[in-house]
Amino acid sequence: MRGKSDGRIGPRANLRHIGALVRRNAMQIRYEPFAMFDALAMPIVFALLFTYVFGGAMTGGNRSEYVNYFIPGLMAMGGLNIAMSIGIGVNDDFSKGVMDRFRTMPIARSSVLIAKLIVESGRMLVSTLILLIMGFTMGFELETGPVELLAAVALSVLFGSSLTWIFMLLGMSMPTPQAVSGMGFLVMMPLQFGSSIFAPTATMPDWLRAFTEYNPLSRLADAARALTSGHGAVAEPVMVTLGWAVALTVVVAPLAVRRFRNKTS
């Protein structure tokens, strides 16, 4: 028997359902600690790899300068990596019948996806904090203050959360977890490496620079750098990033909920 539709469930009941599902997803992480591996290990691996392999070449041997450039940029990339993992997880849940059981319950269809979004946002926050700890250990210098740093963290998590809707939709649209992973990398690679995360756009050819300047990850990286260094424009990249986050959520979230409601296999 199918559960009640979203329209028959009041806001209070919906919040209770979301809270229960958040606890369930959090308990899964508790009993499967390997699920936190990407959030804990990837920031450390990326920080060490890019700083000590490419940092010297990028700045003429001055790795400390590259750390100050790269760590805020890496904050922009962390949410994208974790968002892809949730798409794989959603696809796997459908293949195991977990989502079908949820859809037979008298709960709002959106509550299942919102609960996943909340837990993944928490993982993004943990990943960003690990990155910052690693960055400070490697010599990252905060030239503004804690308020600006918190704003950069919040902006990164907010944008990463908006990307989560895309990968949840992708996870429900692809036939296998491997297909989700392959399609995710096709999306991730141009966005990550065609951005200002790793190198200034001024060093790129004109045809690539045109793409990087409109890449939302570039705008997020620029905003994080301005907030942590105190140099460069802040308002413009912050507003553009917020605009991207709101637009992605408004457009993709209803599509993901509809796909979840109507998915048959």
Q: Which secondary structure elements does this structure contain, and how are they paired or packed?
A:
Elements: H1 11-31, H2 37-58, H3 63-95, H4 98-103, H5 109-137, H6 146-173, H7 177-193, H8 206-214, H9 216-229, H10 235-262
In short:
The chain is mostly helical and 265 residues long. It has ten helices and no strands.
What does the model show?
By secondary structure, the chain is mainly α. It has one domain. The protein is 78% helix and 0% strand. The protein has 10 helices and no strands. It has helices at residues 11-31, 37-58, 63-95, 98-103, 109-137, 146-173, 177-193, 206-214, 216-229, 235-262. It is elongated. Mean pLDDT is 85; it is low at 1-7.
Proportion in helices: over 70%
Average pLDDT metric: 85
Estimate nothing, just give the exact number of structural domains.
1
Number of helices: 10
Query: Sheet bearing the most strands, described?
Result: none
Q: How many strand elements?
A: 0
Poorly predicted parts: 1-7
Gross morphology is: elongated
As a whole number of angstroms, the C-alpha radius of gyration is 19 Å
Q: What would the keywords be for this entry?
A:
single chain; 265 residues; mainly alpha; 10 helices; 78% helix; elongated; disordered N terminus
